[in-house]
Amino acid sequence: MAPIDWTCSDTQRIRAGGAMLEMMCLGPPPEQATTLVLLHEGLGCIALWRDFPLRLAEATGCGVLVFSRQGYGRSDPCDLPRPLDYMTDEAVRVLPEVLDAIGLRRGILVGHSDGASIAALHAGRVGDARIAGVVLMAPHFFTEPMGLKSIAEAREAYRHGDLRSRLVKYHAHVDAAFLGWNGAWLDPDFTRWDIRDALDGVSVPVLAIQGEADQYGTRAQVDVVAERVPAEVELALLPDCRHSPFLDQPQRCLDLLRGFVLRLQRATADLAS
User: Fold this and answer.
1) pLDDT (tens digit, 9 = 90+) per residue, 164-215?
2) Which pairing describes strands 206-211 and 107-112: parallel, antiparallel, or unpaired?
């Protein structure tokens, strides 16, 4: 398989977790700068980040890696049903292979929704020394009735509304993308899903961002980050913001991430001096 070309602005393919995944890289390569690794939500993919990866690379001066997990975007399809611990599997088995494939040297995980849960699981249970910080946008650590209600409403919109037709533009295997996420979250056994213990093992600084009008989770999902992570934690609650802070409040998110990256860089420089 051809090596990653960081000068290429088009999507490329990498193998991780036994599947071919679409990926795109922006900004300087890992040997020249910190790499921000973007992990998308339960219905996301590269394209659904919109222009946020490019703006993030420009705002921070960092390299940015964005990829579609198996079952999403133009990556290989996944088997259904997804196991109820799929986020843990992504964090401890698949993500390390992605990071190795791109030659990561120093990185910051930037996750949204399911991707934020994966980022926290990786930081808390893998303990990769290359990871310098974690950004969690609208994370999930346990289920809440209001979130499950919104997920059930999404199922109705997919079955009887226009959600499927809107998603098919972004996912080559749209049923795998939607049903893999929705089926797991609405499985009766998933009500017991709880990954709060992973936060106890996060030893790097964390920025947690939550929209005040998030339809999938309350601020309890970020409060638990401050309660359990033993490292430095910054919480940002955004008004006029639902489940996608990078879309609803893009400039505020860019400012928060830029400040977070700069603080980590200064801390590293202080340790080296």
Assistant:
1) 999 999 999 999 999 999 999 999 999 999 999 999 999 999 999 999 999 9
2) unpaired
If 0-12 CB within 10 Å is exposed, 13-18 middle and 19+ buried, where does residue 188 land? Answer: exposed
SS3 category, 52 = helix
- Side-chain-facing half-sphere of 214: CA atoms under 13 Å: 27
φ, ψ for residue 10 (rounded to 5)?
-90, 170
> Which pLDDT value is given to residue 127?
86
Cis peptide preceding 81, ω within 30 of 0: yes
Contact 113, 138 (CB under 8 A): yes
The stretches of the chain forming alpha helices (DSSP H) are 52-60, 86-89, 95-101, 114-121, 145-160, 163-167, 174-185, 220-228, 245-248, 250-272
The CA distance from 75 to 44, in Å, is: 12
Residue 219 CA to its chain's centroid (Å): 18
Tokens linked to 59: 């705002």
Give me the residue label for tokens 């579609």: 68
SS3 state of residue 202 = coil
The phi, psi pair for 216, rounded to 5°, reads -110, -5
Residue 243 tokens read as: 């489940």
Say whether 123 sits in a helix, a strand or coil: helix
What is this structure's pTM? 0.97
Residues near 116 by Cβ (< 8 Å), separated by ≥ 6?
A: 39, 135, 136, 137, 138, 139, 140
Label residue 127 left, alpha or beta by phi (over 0 means left) and psi (-120 to 50 means alpha): left
